[in-house]
Write a structure and sequence with these properties.
Blueprint (H helix, E strand, L loop, with lengths): L2 H33 L2 H27 L14 H29 L8 H28 L2 H30 L4 H28 L5 H12 L6 E9 L5 E10 L4 H19 L2 E10 L4 H14 L5 E10 L4 E8 L5 H12 L7 E8 L4
Parallel strand pairs: 2-3, 5-6
Antiparallel strand pairs: 1-2, 4-5
Amino acid sequence: MDSAQREKIIVRTSVIGIIVNILLAGFKAAVGLAANSIAVVLDAVNNLSDALSSVITIIGARLAGKKPDKEHPLGHGRVEYLSAMIVSAIVLYAGVTSMVESVKKIITPEKPEYTTISLVIIATAVVAKVLLGRYVRSQGKKVDSGALIASGTDAMSDAALSLAVFLTAVLYMITGIALEPYVGVVISLFIIKAGFEMIQDTIKDILGRRADESVSRMVKQIVVQEPEVRGAYDLFLHNYGPGKYYASVHVELPDTMTVEEVDVLTRRIQNKVYHETGVIMTAIGVYAFNTKNDEAAAIRNKIQKTVLEHDWALQVHGFHLDQQAKEIRFDVVMAFDIKHKDGLEILHEELDPMFPDYKLYIQPDIDITD
C-alpha cells in the first residue's frame, strides 16, 4: 500500500469518527443536561474529546505524508507518533477533568430525571460506539496507524462506559437509587487509564521498539536465499514512521569472492529486499568466511561450542581466522541481562588459554532482532 492510499484511508476513517462522535456528543449533552445527569454529560465530553483526537489524527497523517526535504531527508513519518502523543494527552486531560466534576457531584449530589427517550438515545449511542470502535481499529491495523488503533480501542472502552451509564439510568428509574456521580468516577478512571497506556505505547515508538519480528524474519530470509550467503547477522531496522524502514545487515561470504562479485551480490539483495518488503537496505557489511583450510573450521566449532555454553551468549558470527597475523575475530550476541564488559572478561578467561598462539578480538553485539 503506497503512502497516498494509506493517508486517504486514515483521513476517511477519522472523518467518519469525527461526524459520529460530534453527533453522539450533541445528543448525550442534551440528554445529560435535561436529565441533570453528570454521568451522561461526562460521556458526552468524552465523545467530544474523541472527535478532537480524530482531527489531530488527520493533521498528523497529512504532515507525515509530506515528501522528504533538505531538512528531513528521510521523510516526516514520525510526525504520526507526535500526533498519537497529543491524542493521548487529550484523553488523559478528559479523564482528569471528568474525575474532578464527578467528585464535585458526590459532595453536592443532585437527583437526575431520566425519560424513556433519553434511555433510547443512550442505548443507541452504545451500539454506535461499538460499531465505530471496531471499524476504526480494523482500519488502523490495516494501515498500521497507531493513532487509529488507539482511537478504535478507546471507542470500544467508551461503549462499555456508556453501557454502564445506561444501566445506571435504568436502575434509578426502577429503584430511585442515584449512582451517576460514582459511575462518573469509574468512567474517569477508565479514561485516565486509557490515556496513560496510550502515552506509554507512543513513548515506546518514539524511543525505538525492538524491530517487528515478521519484517526482520522476512528480510533475513530474502538475504540468506542467495547461494553465496552463509548467514545474515546484525540486522538493524530503523523506523521512520509506520511501515517506513531503513535497514543495514552483515552477511557472511566466502573469502574467495572478489570485490566485484560482492558488489553485484549486495545490489541484488538490496533490490530484492525493497521490492518484496518495502524496506530500504542502506548498507550491507561483509564477514569473511574461511574456506581455505580445515584448521579454521575446527577452531570455529570449538569456540562456538564454548561460547554458547553460557545462557547469555545467544549467537556467534562473523568468525575469521588470520593464520599469518595470528588473529581470531568474531562477534557474540549477548542478552541484556549481562554487561558486555563482564561477558568479554568471562570469554577471554576461557578462550585465551585455549588458543595461546592467537590474539582474540571479540566484538559484543546487542540482541536487537529475533
